[in-house]
Amino acid sequence: METPDRLENGDKKQARPVHAAMRAIAGASKMLLSALGKIIITIWRLAGALDSALWRAFKLMVRRGLAAFAYAARLTGAAFHGFVLWLPTRTGRAYSALSGAFLAVAGLWIVDVLRASPSLESIGTATFRPPLDEDDPILARIEGRYVHLSEIEAAAGAGGFLAPGEKLTPQTAFERNFVESYVEQRLLARAALDDGLQRNPGVARKVNAARDRVLASAYMDAQLRAQVTPHAVERLYTRQADVTRLGDEVRARHIVVETGAEAEEIIERLGAGADFAELARERSIDRATAPLGGEVGWFTQAMMTPVFSRAAFSAKPGDIAPVFQTEFGWHIVEVLDRRASRPVPLSQVRDAIEEFLRVRTIESSLRDLEEKKQVVYFRPEPGSVRRRFMAPPDLRDPSFASPPENSAPAHSDEEGNPDGGAAEPDGAR
């Protein structure tokens, strides 16, 4: 059994570590407070030292500034005193006169500029001029973005308001309201985008269709620029002109009568020395050539019927061909002259050749794209439509100037020539 003395000794043994821990904590706190106090005192003393140094520096700067100002004032006073003493001299008077004249002119110029400047009331409504762009003039501004003449011209051309090759000027663009229309269209398009209308399926389809039209037109323009060149025109002209140089031309006149007996009678009269032109005016039933003395003009073999060409080209200049019959009657033909055929000048058929090359380029480009992309048409009725090339212009007709409108193509190029050319005509009319 434990006694009270033994219990008291046990409590004392347990209390000793607690007192030691408390003494350690107290010592640490004392050291921390002592260090903190030393830091505060050091900072306070350092601040005082800095404040004293700054104050001394400020006072030094003020003294130096006042000394510099006083020195500058003494120099200015001395200079002004010297200037006052210098003015009454000859040089000073001349300087004063020149200075006064200069100030008077400058004052008058300033007054004139102020009078010519816009008034304060009109500044708010004044028209601000855009930056100068000589290559592509600026015609409008939308939300800080400048609109150039080239944009107006492109929009007008896409809308079909400009003829091919027509160029706009800033004046004509405003006179024809192209600028205002373009700005209004841009504003409406911007408003549609802000409202999100581009996400509407119907609007999106229309936008895609317009985009496809623009891209298709740009692609075809590039193809035409590459294919319809002066070299291509001259090459096709040379190839066609070579055909025209293979034959001759004959100048002749004729008399047409109804019977062979009349034709023989006229031959006898001509042999007796009668005048061919007078007999043509009197007896020929061809009222188109009779007033001209039977003159037919220059022609090639391809320009006349075979029987007429054989008779005319078989005779020599100055001879009368054997009498022959056609559906119009009996003919007496006299050959007046003969020469090598001459091709039509390039300048006369250049436009027709260019048009032919454009049509051929469009047709061949579309055909190549359809074959490459494996296009298949599902038509409601059976049958297919075959594209046909337009025939190249025939240069052997001296009166040829341009292809007739809505003319049907005469040749097809189903096989496709390696050089891109069309099949040559066979010379028949």
Key structural traits:
429 residues; alpha+beta; Chitinase A, domain 3; four-stranded antiparallel β-sheet; two-stranded antiparallel ribbon; 12 helices; 57% helix; 9% strand; disordered C terminus
What share of residues are in beta strands?
Answer: 5-15%
| Secondary-structure-derived class | alpha+beta
Q: How many strands, what sense, and barrel or not for the largest sheet?
A: 4 strands, antiparallel
Low-confidence stretches: 397-429
C-alpha-based Rg, rounded: 54 Å
SS summary, helix count: 12
Order of helical and strand elements: HHHEEHHHHHEHHEHEEH
Short précis:
By secondary structure, the chain is α+β, with helices and mostly antiparallel strands.
Please describe what this structure looks like.
Among the domains are: about 130-195, no CATH class; about 200-245 and about 345-415, no CATH class; about 245-340, Roll (Chitinase A, domain 3), CATH 3.10.50.40. Helix content is about 55%, strand content about 10%. The protein contains twelve helices and six strands. The longest helix is centred in the N-terminal third of the chain and has 83 residues, at about 5-85. The termini are far apart.
Helix and strand topology:
Elements: H1 4-86, H2 90-116, H3 120-123, E1 138-142, E2 145-148, H4 149-158, H5 170-175, H6 178-194, H7 201-227, H8 230-244, E3 248-257, H9 260-271, H10 276-283, E4 295-299, H11 306-314, E5 324-326, E6 329-340, H12 346-372
Antiparallel strand pairs: 1-2, 3-4, 3-6, 5-6
Helix pairs in contact: 7-12, 8-12
